[in-house]
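pinging the channel bc i need a second pair of eyes. not urgent but kinda urgent?? the chain im working w is below, pasted from the shared doc
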Amino acid sequence: MPDGVRLSVTLTVPILTRRGETFPVLLQYKPYRKDDSLLYADQSDARYLARRGFIIAQVDIRGTGSSEGILVEREYSTQELNDCEHIIQQLASDRRSNGRVGMYGISWSGFNTLMMGTLRRPRALRALFAAHATDDLYKSDIHYPDGIMHLDQYLIFIDHSNAIPAPIDYNMNAQWIRERFRRRPWIDVYLSQQLDNSFWKENSIKYAYDNLTLPVYLIGGLYDAYRDSPLRIYEKTRKNSPKIKVTIGPFVHAMPENVNRHPGPIYDGKAEMVRWFSHWLKDDQKDSEIIKEPDITLFIRTSLTTGHYRYETEWPIVRQKIRRMYMSKDHKLIEQKPLMTNLNENKVFNNVDILEYRPWIGFEAGTWLGGLTDDQRPFDKDSLIYDSEPINQAVELIGVVNVSLQVSATVRLAHWIVRLEDVDPNGQIALITTGALNGAQRQTPPAYLKPNCQYTITFPLRFTTWTFLIGHRIRIAVSNAMFPTYWPSPFPMNTSLFFNSSTTFIDLPVLPVLSSSTPPAFTQKQVSPTDTLPEMFSGAKPRVYKTYETNTKTTVNFERISYELLPNNYFMSALQTFNLSCSHQNPGDVHWSGRAQQTYVFDVHGYRSIDDVPLRSGVQELYPNIDLSTRPYFILLTQSDVRSDREYFYVNFKRQLFRSNSSTNKPSEEFIFTGKHKRLFQ
């Protein structure tokens, strides 16, 4: 880089078929440690793409993984994007490059792919491919979804990973301690930015849509939190770009070909990447089919695990009609405007439903606005629910459900969460989509509610597709909590929902149900076994996600343990766990506690796969069952703790390094950090 800092790149280069042959370059740019934690996954992707005529450049962001430098101060920093401009310039100038660069990635590397194509636009960058990325870093990202604070395993993972020394030699010297180990934890950074301000807006591409003039392929997942962004970006930028292609399928936060994670049918997403970049970056494929195909491919769900793919030629879809339905007394959802005995006096008993706030409910809706969820009946019993009559003709939804509610609260802050659900004839309840509003953010700038004052609030639910089958009911569920997805508002309260046909309703984006059609050919293509590297050196225990409830509090627990057998005879294990608990008596009393441990053992010889390495049992399961007294090893332990009361958030953070050459059980290095932040409309 211009300041002398060296960033680590892994280049995978195709085999030349003729002298002087050049190739386009595909760049993936992220902080997730390409040389140990993601080594085998990244190698598999690079091998696939290089065999199809691309140079693959995988780069660790400054101060992370194998790159040099001081850890960047946050996600998507100005330094990160500055460095990326220089990387693209260098890659385009490489003698093996044809001068054309594409960027690709999922999640973080999808985010900065869109940022580089919109906010920086270096000349050599010609095309983009982004999966599960967002255009809004505040309301449509992980820290404050819908303007409400969220914490899960990501924050302990990233604050831990950021401090691990660089492979391959894992040099734990004074420079590493200064540049990584003792850096301010990002969890504290984000707690200091609770409102939608310049911190979030600076690199959110929604404020620069007009700058997105490159061709872009966007992938979204119906079981992922970022499913709104692809079509929102498409609608705002399609006139500027030569081609924007959108595919939204039955995916969680993973690429479409990830066979072990998705609830619905999969396809070879990397093959789509090859088709896309071949058209835009190679000289001999300008007439490829992908440019002639319709822009939009959607998976139309008929249940949580079934459905079918189809093309759409436009967005918004012209044949879409809005069906308005009204929440009414006796917990009914009706299409005719409800008759009200006194429209000017909503406090008439029959015209209002009152809900007691239970801040600990919502486990059944998942940890973070995504994933395959269970039966919603336990959640619904503590919510206001409104059901339609059994439908006599199938109803297909594609798009965004918009909600309007006339509400009040007995305190100054409340959140409203609305869920669209499907009730089958047997009473099973499927969660289709959700949306929420932080009551203080009903306006700009935010302001507290006036207790017992009525407000009309409007907000969208997340993009969805669904088919309500004959005999099923449409349900709307309303609550003031969805724990652990949203950090609870801090005051005991009741809220009221008023039945007024002009202010309390939902708008469903309904389409005529089409007869079956031939699905797009690319959605039927599976990954060839010859393109799949065997997962011989990576392993993991099943993820644990469960809840515990007593009379006084509810606690949600997450745990994940993974193992890697790395080159140079290194063994690595990784633990991520968190507990999030909420008091039943005091909604302000919420406690998140995260713990991560990385164990590296060297000189682990003679094992052909990770399954061959014996592991200790019980609390020692992070260690191989071999003689550690004769081998060097180190352990990095991170503990992160966030508590709240009604007025503040409190951060207690600790990193510890344990080394095999230590004569005691005490850490050889330790970093302790504390923080305190006033609650700002949270």
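so The chain has ten helices and 30 strands. and The longest strand covers residues 553-566. — does that match what u expected or am i reading it wrong
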